[in-house]
């Protein structure tokens, strides 16, 4: 193959598209730690005071036209960089998604929110290992419909998760790793009660 295609052998892959790669005998580990540090430095947040959380406790960004306009290209650059980082950082997925809604006409409040995420990244490093019981799939999204209660919202989320579980179960069977049962965890007791005794 080397002779026919003109390919050449290089050293073991250690960095690719912003991901650090560590290969061991039985495992391959991916990390965006270096990418995160470069990101914080790129936007001048490496000297800023770190934050303990990625957003304020009661985050509520809106299309506030009364605030001062900012450089939209800078804001979009920060958001796009953060969106790429969410591949390995589910802890910032929600707040990055909220900030991403205001890329068309961003204001100072939106920029402060995005910069807070950068300050949080500087202080917190995440590592995810995708093996056995660890995370294999995750997502954070805005619900398509308006729920009238937390029970309804949790039930919709649980239903969507069940669809994902069934698909993963079928996929694992095709890979030769059948699962007799799969557990769905939910933190809303009312939604759990309704699932056990549908009205």
Explain what this protein looks like in three dimensions.
This protein has 199 residues and is mainly alpha-helical. Among the domains are: 32-123, no CATH class; 150-196, no CATH class. 42% of the residues lie in helices and 6% in strands. It is built from 7 helices and 3 strands. The protein has helices at residues 2-5, 33-42, 72-85, 93-99, 108-123, 150-174, 189-196; strands spanning 15-16, 19-23, 28-31. The chain has a 3-stranded antiparallel sheet with strand order 1-2-3. The longest helix is centred in the last third of the chain and has 25 residues, at 150-174. The radius of gyration is 21 Å and the shape is flat. 16% of the residues are buried. The model is unreliable at 127-131 (pLDDT under 50).
Q: How far apart, in Å, are the first and last alpha carbons? A: 63 Å
What order do the SSEs take from the amino end to the carboxyl end, as H and E? HEEEHHHHHH
Mean pLDDT: 79
Question: Helix/strand/pairing class, anyone?
Answer: mainly alpha
Which sequence of strands runs across the widest sheet? 1-2-3
Rg from alpha-carbon coordinates: 21 Å
| Largest sheet entry | 3 strands, antiparallel
The helical percent reads 40-55%
Q: Helix tally?
A: 7
Extract low-pLDDT stretches: 127-131
Q: How much strand content do the residues show?
A: 5-15%
What is the number of E strands? 3
Protein name: Mitochondrial protein
Organism: Cucumis melo var. makuwa
């Amino acid at each position: 193959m080397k002779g026919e295609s003109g390919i050449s052998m290089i050293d073991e892959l250690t960095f690719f598209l912003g991901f650090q790669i560590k290969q061991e005998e039985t495992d391959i580990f991916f990390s965006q730690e270096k990418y995160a540090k470069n990101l914080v430095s790129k936007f001048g947040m490496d000297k800023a005071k770190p934050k303990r959380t990625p957003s304020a406790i009661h985050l509520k960004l809106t299309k506030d036209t009364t605030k001062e306009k900012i450089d939209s290209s800078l804001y979009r650059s920060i958001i796009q960089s953060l969106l790429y980082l969410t591949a390995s950082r589910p802890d910032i997925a929600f707040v990055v998604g909220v900030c991403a809604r205001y890329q068309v006409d961003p204001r100072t409040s939106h920029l402060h929110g995005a910069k807070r995420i950068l300050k949080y990244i500087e202080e917190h490093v995440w590592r995810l290992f995708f093996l056995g019981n660890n995370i294999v799939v995750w997502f954070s999204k805005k619900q398509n419909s308006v729920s009238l209660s937390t029970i309804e919202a949790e039930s919709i989320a649980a239903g969507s998760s069940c669809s994902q579980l069934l698909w993963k179960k079928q996929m694992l069977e095709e890979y030769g790793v059948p699962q007799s049962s799969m557990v769905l965890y939910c933190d809303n007791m009312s939604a759990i009660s309704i699932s056990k005794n549908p009205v």
